[in-house]
Every structure is written in structure tokens, then in C-alpha cells.
Amino acid sequence: MKNKPLVAITGASAGIGKELAFIFASNGYPVLLMARRKEILDGYDEIREKVTAKVDVTNFDELQEAITLGEAKYGPIDLMINNAGVMPLGDYVAQPRTEKYQTLDVNIKGVINGMDAVLPTMIKNHHGTIINISSVAGRYSSLNHSVYNGSKAAINLLTEEVRKENAKNNIRFTLVEPGLVKTELSKTTTISEAMEIYQDQIDSLNGGLDPKMVAAMILKIYELPQEVNIKEVMLTLTAQMV
Ligand code: NDP
What residues flank ligand 1, with Cβ below 6 Å? Predict the structure, then answer.
């Protein structure tokens, strides 16, 4: 039986990325797992076919090195999931500029770095899939989310146009826009007033969507035949009004 191709996941140390790591591995894919907390990735003992790397997605060289390492062991990456993200919430005026820039750096530059690191090989191979994790926040603005809204909205149009330009190269692009998911994401919010409002939302949705659901849907999208491209998906709890 032919070996399954390498799947690369950024932000694999928690939340959606962690579930992606486990579902792809348990379905027979070797995985390249990237995050700043490499020690967490190394602790995924159940995942045997893996390469782990300490990667800050804002640093292109770190991403590139990790990819070289993964591809040396398992061959070309056929699926890149640009998942790493942060969400420091706050009233625009109150939010420190450092947090604003961090949001743009991780959520936009990180995705650009991820795409740039794999696209040349995918184009050469005339095969590949890139899945960018956006958010309902990329479609709808909401209180205290302004910079996060902006970062995710940027990913929506960026993904759309890069997808169009690479249709001729047989590369699929999928934009995934989850609603509120039960993860560690809110820990990057430092402004307590904003956290209190967000916590009310979390509580009203019993913690949010199970990240396993997001990961399972991404596996299904990827396993469609290469000529079929699910371009965009928004998934939320039924109870979530967006
Ligand atoms: P978590 O906080 O649980 O996980 C975030 C992951 O991103 C961690 O593995 C973290 O790893 C990684 N990360 C953060 N900054 C960097 C960085 N600079 N370089 C590399 N990795 C980084 O959040 P989620 O699982 O919820 O988030 C995953 C994606 O889903 C994000 O893009 C988020 O915006 C999006 N999303 C989440 C929703 C939610 O409600 N949870 C809703 C909609 C979209 P480490 O700290 O080890 O580097």
C-alpha cells in the first residue's frame, strides 16, 4: 500500500492544532508538528510517525527549517494547515500596540510564511492543499475584536486570491471559519474587562464547539479527491448566533 503523504500543522501544541495532529496521525498520515512549545509536541507518545519542531510562525527561517527536516524524513508536504493564532481582545483604544502588532504578526504574517514555505514545492509537484484557519471573526466584527477581526478578514481575501492564482497549479485552498471553539485561545487576552465579556459568551455556549469537530471536518475536506475543492467552510455550534 502506498504511504500517505506528509501533513504539516502549525500551532499543534494546543486546541484545534492538537486535535488535527491526533486525527491525521490516527488516520495514517505522518505529521510535521510545529509550535513554540516543542516539549508538548514531543510528549505526544501515541503519534509515532512525526517530526516535531520549535517554530515561531512569525519567523520564516524557523518554518523553512522545520519543513526541510520533515520532508527529509517523509517526502513532500501535501497538506499545510496554517492554524497557529492568537486573540488578544480589547477595546481598540485601550489595547496596547504591542498586542495589536502581535495579532497581525502571528495571524497574518504567520499564514503568509506558512504558504510561502510550501508553495514552491507544491507548484513543482503540481499537487497540494493549503488550509488556512480564519474565523467567523473574519466575516463579522464584534465588540473588543477589532484587530483580531482585521487579521482574520485579511486571511479571507488573501486565501481567496492565492487560491485563484494557483488553480492552474492544481493546488487546493480551503478557508475554515470556526465559531467559538473550546480551546486555550482566550488566554492571550490580557485586558480583564474584555475577558469578562468574552467569558460570558463562552459560558452561554457551554464552553464552545469541540475542537475535535473542527479537526474531523478538515480531515474530510482533505480526503476528497484532489480535483474537488471545498473553498470555504464556516462551522459553529448550532446555538451560536453570528
Ligand atoms: P489555542 O490557543 O488553543 O492554540 C493556539 C496554537 O497556536 C498553540 O498551539 C500555540 O502554540 C500556537 N501559536 C500561537 N502563537 C504562535 C506563534 N507565534 N508561533 C507558532 N505557534 C503559535 O487556540 P485555538 O486552537 O483555538 O486556535 C487555532 C486557530 O483557530 C487560530 O488561528 C484561531 O484564531 C482559530 N480560531 C479559534 C477559535 C476559537 O474559538 N478557539 C474560533 C475561530 C478561529 P505555542 O504557544 O506552543 O507556540
Answer: 10-17, 35-37, 55-58, 83-87, 106, 133, 135, 178, 180-181, 183-185, 208
